[in-house]
Amino acid sequence: MKLHASGEDYLETILVLQKKLGMVRSVDVARHMGVSKPSVCVAVNTLKDGGFITMDEDHFSHLSNVGRKVAEKIYERHCFFTE
Questions:
Q1: What pTM was estimated for this model as a whole?
Q2: Residue 16 maps to which CATH number?
Q3: Which is an annotated GO molecular function term of this record (predicted)?
Q4: DSSP secondary structure string, 34-70?
C-alpha cells in the first residue's frame, strides 16, 4: 500500500506520542495534530488496513514492524530538514 503525506504524518505522530506517552489513543493523535477525532478514525482504519498499525482491545494504537520502520524513516527525515 502506498502512503500519502497525510498517512506519513499520522504514522510519525503515533511514533512521537508512543515515545512520549507510551500508549496512544486516537484522541491523543487528534489533539497533537489539531484535527478532528473522526479524521483520525478514518486515517487509523486506512493505516490498519495497510498493515502499518494495530489496535488492541482497549483501542490503543500500536505501530507494526513495517509501520515503525516507515515512521522512523519519516521522523529522521523531518529532523534532518529542521536542523
A1: 0.89
A2: 1.10.10.10
A3: DNA binding
A4: T--HHHHHHHHHHHHHTTSEEE-TT--EEE-HHHHHH
